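Write out this protein's structure.
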Amino acid sequence: MRVVLAQPRGFCAGVERAIDIVERAIEKYGPPIYVRHEIVHNRHVVERLRAKGAHFVDELDEIPPGSVTIFSAHGVSSAVEDAAANRTLPVIDATCPLVSKVHSEGQRYAAQGREIVLIGHAGHPEIEGTMGRINGKVYLISRAEEVAALTVSDPHKLAFITQTTLSVDDTKAVIDALRLRFPDIVGPDTKDICYATQNRQRAVRELAQQVDVVLVVGAANSSNSNRLREIAAEQGVKAYLVADADALDPAWVRGAKAVGITAGASAPEELVQNLIARLKQLSDVKCEKLPGITENVRFRMPPELAETAG
């Protein structure tokens, strides 16, 4: 069996930074450190950090007074930030800088008196944080078909922004529909889209052209991992989302001559290697890696941890 690895895959710079923030905070302040929601959408990462002394909570009122508190990579609303300040919780913000950039764009458009169309998935923590950061009317849509039903105050004073775990390709149809109906709508340049999402989606398209089956390592609640599986399936190959090696059903790869593997932006490389080891238990395996983009993006640590960053 040929096992072909997508490049790039797995952790992006925002995820690496968020995990690093939790680890460095534990080193600097000592456990326990409290994290609002999962730092990233991956159970294995969360459990590893929990073993080091991180406590993951749903709401701020679960955090003891005075405890070091970390906001997850997905970002939080202004109301959550204000609530933390009212409780005088020492906060370290692990929001991905690319998410923060979307917040800034939305705030800038709202300050111009524009209503905002946010392209994204309802219920995702990033969407909740973004909508809670913008002072003004925000319309949430996810599909081009929803554009026709939009009722806005002034069609000449509109702007759009997007969830970072969507790519240029994901949003193109929606943006095209918005521009067709609202010719005066403004929005960020496509170069502002999350580089990691775009790179991983391009890589999985190339991967799917060369294999019989695609396995996407990622959590069920990971938006970008689910999208990778969907994109592979759209190329006409069988595609499965696997949380880890134990989740692999041997029937999925039985008879396959070539199996492709990629991983969502919050899935650690060790899960990919464990999956390869599991495939080796089922068949003789020859591994190869597709050529692809080498990412060298790095984000700065928050000021509270800058001196620990070396």
